[in-house]
Amino acid sequence: xxxxxxxxxxxxxxxxxxxxxxxxxxxLEGPVPLTLSKLANLQVVDLxxxxxxxxxxxxxxxxxHLLSFNISHNNLQGELPGGFFNTIxxxxxxxxxxxxxxxxxxSCAAVLPKPIVLNPNSTTDxxxxxxxxxxxxxxxxxxxxxSLIAIGAAAVIVIGVIAITVLNLRVRALASxxxxxxxxxxxxxxxxSPSTDAxxxxxxxxxxxxxxxxxxxxxxxxxxxxGRGGFGAVYRTVLQNGNPVAIKKLTVSSLVKSQEDxxxxxxxxxxxxxxxxxALEGYYWTPSLQLLIYEFxxxxxxxxxxxxxxxxxxxxxxxxxxxILGMAKGLSHLHQLNVxxxxxxxxxxxxxxxxxxxxxxxxxxRLLPMLDRYILSSKIQSALGYMAPxxxxxxxxxxxxxxxxxxxxxxxxxxxxxxxxxxxxxDVVVLCDMVRGALEEGKVEECIDEGLRGNVxxxxxxPVMKLGLICTSQVPSNRPDMREVVNILExxxxxxxxxxxxxxxxxxxx
Length: 510
Known about the structure:
By secondary structure, the protein is α/β, with parallel strands linked by helices. 28% of the residues lie in helices and 15% in strands. The chain has 4 domains: 5-104, Alpha-Beta Horseshoe (Leucine-rich repeat, LRR (right-handed beta-alpha superhelix)); 123-176; 184-295, Phosphorylase Kinase, domain 1, CATH 3.30.200; 302-503, Transferase(Phosphotransferase), domain 1 (Orthogonal Bundle), CATH 1.10.510.
């Protein structure tokens, strides 16, 4: 925060190589200048907590490298630009009550053409203002009146046909609806048996018959919302047998494949089982609504434990090491099945009641054929800092090495308790750079989570940090694969087994 006032200068367009623009928490006013759309290399823009007004230039949608564009808490209005802004995080536009678009949950008012009013009593040409001869006036009046009558009659007939059709469809639907049909709180429905009509909705549970009868009202109930991510909201509901499940409502229907492709890929993902992966239990399909049904993991996310936890649920070093190892095993299993995660971040790592980590939200690339470009342009903003650098290059093939990079960042996050990117008052701290500098200067203890200092083994924490840095190499070929990562972690842990604490060296102890 620098208390900068005035308007954003249009001369910024001269900074053609500018990639990060952070002007948040100031007193800037006026519109967002059109010249920003000329900065082709922009990746991160933060204009939040200012007094900006007016509409956003439509040309901003042409910026190809945007990862984050935060305009929250201003006085902006009108419709969000297209492209990247169609899928921007709601938190990035919050606090602008006059903005509209998909991310704001406010629909923009439709711009309708001005209605044509036929006035049979008018004798003036509305275009030229000149008078018409009486004979032409009479002909025009007769034509206008007869046209209105014809249009009215046709409208009545059309409305009647539509009404009869709708009634017939409702009667058929009610007649064919089985007692096992489950009502969604938003008006859609689940059907026990697969339906050949995709519009009626199709629910499939891989473990057997679906049974939501006791929890149907909570399926998409906001009171049961667990959280929101880049690709949708997650809700908790309970089966009749008492088992809870998590239901992810995809908010990217425009990117979903056809029903046939969607179901084929979901069924493949449903067969993936591993102790360190969140199991996909089933799915629901309509052309406008897709739900993924997962096992419910009760312990919350890794992000919550690291950054929102209290002293009561502080993670010990042993717990953290096991989380790092478990994440590696889960990803290694995915890669053996040729599944790339694409969207690794601490909020997608869940902790079960026994402290075991489970990697969630994997395999979306199989459901969303445009996901690689979609992530690059929009949703990955929520995973800023976990992204491998090759995501920024459209010509580079995305491989498992991108997940290795994300894992490396996660490992460092677990050790340090710090986020991948932290915005200070006058600086931006990148976790990988901070850890690398600390190791080079021999100041390991300065970047370890404060609560761990004095209680973490040097022989374990330093190799883990070095492994994290190797995984985040800028060159993909220099990163190990996840099977190698698992082997390295197991070797790091083995030497300390069976040793007495008195013979071990702890970080922070003399």
